[in-house]
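2024-03-11 09:14:02 DEBUG pipeline.ingest accepted 1 chain
2024-03-11 09:14:02 DEBUG pipeline.ingest length=432
2024-03-11 09:14:03 DEBUG pipeline.predict start
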Amino acid sequence: MAVRRRGLAAVALAVAASLLMAACGGDDDSGSAAPTSAGPVSGKFEFFSWWTGPGDSEGKQALLDLFKQQNPSITIVDAVVAGGSGTNAQAVLATRLQSNDPPDSYQRHAGAELLADIQAAKVKDLTALYDQEKWRDVFPKSLLDMITVDGKLYSVPVNIHRSNVLWYNPKALEKAGISGPPKTWDEFLQQAPKLKAAGITPLTIGPLWTQEHLLENVLLGELGPEAYAGLWNGSTDWESTEVKAALDKYTAVLKQSNLKQSAADWQPALDPIIEGDAAYNVMGDWANTYFLTAKKQAWETDYNATTAPGTEGVFNFLSDSFTDPVGANNEAATMAWLKLAGSKEGQDVFNPIKGSIPARTDGDPSKYTGYSAIPFKDWTDKNTKIVGSLTHGVVANNAWKADIETALGDFVSSGDSAKFASAVKSAYEQDK
């Protein structure tokens, strides 16, 4: 469902002491962005993202090259900050927004992650642009509902990634005498002793954000899509028996991982799978580009993937989106960029390289092969159940997400599911 005003009020309370709450510019700047006339644009265009990894940087460059081709007189400033699934970039961005020094367009995960910026009047309403470009006809309603705030749209999704993916090494399973990946987390726990006996780590993990990524998908697999979605709107009680059981399952799963030797980021967490020393990793489908392009692995032979245990028929999504910041220096270039980012041409240039799929439903299927054909088909299947990622900004506002992550650090160490559930529930009541 659409993001509600109570989420905005929560963010206001959470960041009231921050200068992010100080709106900049006059009424004209903070209103709906008016579509500009067609034609090439010029001047300097500063593009801000965290796309530096394999696939990310190449996909970004292909899209920026197309933007330059369409606008030969534009000077592109690629302001990029690496690391932490965007957390480092967001810290830098917060400082710039606080100083009223925004780039011409910046990356955010689509959904609740943008709420603080909307409440602080840091981004413009793009509803008029959606209407002009007829994007409501090509973006799925379920996606638009999740990024709509009080009937308005403030960012343009350029892609869709899937969170609930279980990556695995088929040869490692064969070595352990396992016929295929687990359908449930209980089955995974049954496989773990066989893998260990064969000298294979059952599951690899990285830093805290990857542990949060695993958490959301264990919760999804154990609770199902409806109860999982209820965790984020208050209809599922975090202190219920079912949720605590799912949290205990997460602890059991973590015990079968290399948590004590956890990797510094998601890429090195995948390396033991490539080397055959580990069997499984739960990561978004940006991992496909790492396997395929960076490490030259063969799809289905050297590596394979399926939905995370218990999540067949469910798409846990996240999306990279771009904004029109209040106070940006080159409004014409920003609007031209957003039109390209939301276009069929732009999304079909960017996504096959990035390792994601179009947010639009009219992408060219011939461009999405190998692993990518699976999410491309599932995203547009009316029978697929769509839910949003916690880790990647869809379902929880920044204040609540930060509180969850603080509690998660303690939970991973202690395994105290009751304490974690109580902390998350209390934070929801405070931050909603």
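2024-03-11 09:14:41 DEBUG pipeline.report The mean pLDDT is 91.
2024-03-11 09:14:41 DEBUG pipeline.predict end
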